[in-house]
Amino acid sequence: MPSPTFDLLTLARWVQMPERLTSIESWHRHMPFAFALLQMSKPSVLVELGTHRGDSYCTFCQGVTHQQLPTRCYAVDTWQGDSQAGFYDDAIYQDLSQWHDPRFSRFSSLLRMTFDEALEHFADGSVDLLHIDGLHTYDAVKHDFESWLPKMSPRGVILFHDTNVRWGDFGVWQLWAELAGEYPSFEFPFGFGLGVLAVGSEVPQAVLDFLAYANSNTEKTVDFFYRLGDAAQALKVSAELQKVISQREAVGSQLQELRDHLQAVEQAHAEEVTGLHTVLESRHASQQLVNDLHQQLADQKLANQELQRARQTLHAEASSLSEQALYWKGLSHDVTASRWWRLRSRLLRLFGRQDPYRKARLETEGDFPTPR
Predict the structure, then answer these.
(1) What is the DSSP secondary-structure string of 138-165?
(2) pTM above the 0.90 mark?
(3) Which GO MF term does the entry hold, naming one (predicted)?
């Protein structure tokens, strides 16, 4: 029977808005109950088997900080993935570590090892609150439960996630069906299912009162925490929306920067084009001048060729005249040296004294025979 003084609303005061909300949403609706369970159980040692991105684990750590509980927290995971969650690289662990360490490393540790390897680090009867969320096959989750059960303290409470997943090789629901009748328990069906199992002989009374109330008021209890979980989900959606808005604003700023840059580039391009036109015009003018000079050189070459031909012609004519002059000079010498010429000269002297007219006629008409 539930305690007549138990009231769900008293748990709501311990609920916070979760700080770490990643893309793994399967545990988000259970975060309000995690805060409430911490207050009801006040564990000294909390262990989570299977942490992945750390949404559930960091919620527990956040609750420990807010409620100022003296709880030591341990997350056990290889951070390599499995056949169900998928395999991943070291980035998942690094992201969680960078978020977790500055906030919670004072009382919390990330143990990078298998669940079985971690057993030796915990004394029997030392763990007050255990969350099992590893490989979800029936054999795997049963092995985890049985191997860690001796580690549970008399105050021990165990949480099983994915109790309501019934596809593929998921088998938590089968183990839960076996255990729920053996121990005080309650199951939240939403968020893939979360089972609460009180395995200790001295479980805190607040936890037992809750379990009794929840089993007597199942619909009310489920609806209460589902609605509180909605707030966490809404916060996630709001955060994603704000992220999108911020990204859009950032993209808008980048687009404006790109527009300004493009405008500057276009202006610089226009100036370069103008400069190129000026250079081309200058080159065109220079080319025209070069063409004119080439034409003048060609004309000068033709003129030189004409002048050369004229000089050659004149030279030939001069040579011909020189030859004629030499010929006539030689001929004149021969004539003057001949006896006929001497005879003619005597006759001219003779007739010149007697008849000037006849002398003139002899000189002009040449009465004497032409030398041959």
Answers:
(1) HHHHHHHHHHHGGGEEEEEEEEEE-TT-
(2) no
(3) methyltransferase activity
